[in-house]
Amino acid sequence: AITRHYKFNIVMKNVTRLCHTKSMVTVNGKFPGPRIVAREGDRVVIKVVNHVPNNISIHWHGIRQLQSGWADGPAYITQCPIQTNGSFVYNFTIPGQRGTLFWHAHISWIRATVYGPIIILPKRNASYPFPKPHKEVPIIFGEWFNADPEAVIAQALQSGGPPNVSDAYTFNGLPGPLYNCSAPNDTYQLKVRPGKTYLLRLINAALNDELFFAIANHSLTVVDVDAVYVKPFTTDLIVIAPGQTSNVLLNTKQGPHNSSYLMAVSPYFTGQGAIDNTTAAAILEYISSPTSSASSNSSSLPKNLTLLLPSLPAINATSAVTNFTGRLRSLATPQFPANVPQTIQKRFFFTVGLGSSPCPKNQTCQGPNGTKFAASVNNISFAMPSTALLQSHFLGKSNGIYTTDFPSNPLVPFNYTGTPPNNTFVMNGTKVVVLQYNTSVELVMQDTSIITTESHPLHLHGFNFFVVGQGFGNFDPNNDPKNFNLVDPVERNTIGVPSGGWVAIRFLADNPGVWFMHCHFEVHTSWGLKMAWIVRDGKLPSQKLPPPPSDLPQC
Ligand code: C2O
């Protein structure tokens, strides 16, 4: 294992998409940002220097951060933000993870433009548990706003209504040919040779949308999700929620072959609000001879742009989502075991969903029935603290920062999918759940339909978890656990709580620190669909959170 050094300069940069130029926050002037490439077991050291007016922090999404919680990155959870002209060195190792993850800003909506791939290769001389690909290609999906995303969320929080939706989806930052006013170099092109295997490293970095992805006339084989190998399966359709990543194999057609095909993404959404219901496309271009490769450049699209679009499901096609997620299984081999906690010490039941909060006097609010949109876990809408929770926890100074009375939800027979209650109000608080070191946890998350029924991609920092069960309607504590998969459930860091349904996960709390958990729809996080776990130190030195680095930003 080696140490890899990176320097992230946060700078403003003019970027043009959809014929619209804006000055936006970037890393090193790049959009999407630079790739982090490391092997399993390597140490990664990234110096982040903030040259923009905004406060910044960077999260290494999905990295376990075992005993390195100070490097996790969510603002006001593990660190205070890096202020203008400030800097912070993130320093962590990558043990036991292989595949694709991503990094993104973790403060307000800055991640709309500040994100990039994390590519984790197997150890030197270790091989993939699938055929060695000819080439590996990261494809990071995002959302493009013509407006400043910070202004979009500020306006929404002010009015209490929903935020304006994005103007396009993107492949590696490019919206593609299906949008009005799309310049030729606004299209991502993947050039491939016939008869080869490509490893596509897919990342959904969109702010607010689950996505369907497909390539016309090609199937894909899923081999990895969230940097954990899965039992390979072949599919025409990929479903990927924001915060999720997946490695898929693409076998190109036998040559000589000269055609091009479209790849496309479109949203999955079951809620009632407005959504960016557009399709972004990119081009899969076959190159038969080295000469044709040399003569094509990225600003000239192939002539035959009567390209076939892949067929994508309807926007609300929940069955397509369930079919896809139902096929995901851990590889669960002796070399790559699925260490599912078999006995559980702590069980939790969390309701997740939208709600509202009262409209201040003398104001008009654009949320449900003249209130303000809010969102909650167990009816607590998480209020961001004024200083970082991890620091307060480490110093033993929680007073005025957070409380440990996160409500437990007795499994009362409440019909979460029935008629909404009259009172949709949530309570505000900075409440956490405290776990002893090495507690085995089972958590059932139930979507409430209080304002609208929609799926919530919940992301847990600091851990991978096993998805042992899921279903629609109300979770039944007497019967549903009988069907849990404790053998080869998929292991990941972000899971969609199904629209009008529930999901059950298990994890071992073997990582001391403060760990954020939130909906990876950024607007739901802004509305309060977030909470934090505190995992106490264990007895051995190797089970304790080390002291903070000396350059940790202060609030
Ligand atoms: Cu990718 Cu807390 O986020």
From TrEMBL:
This is Uncharacterized protein. It comes from the Eukaryota. It comes from Melastoma candidum.
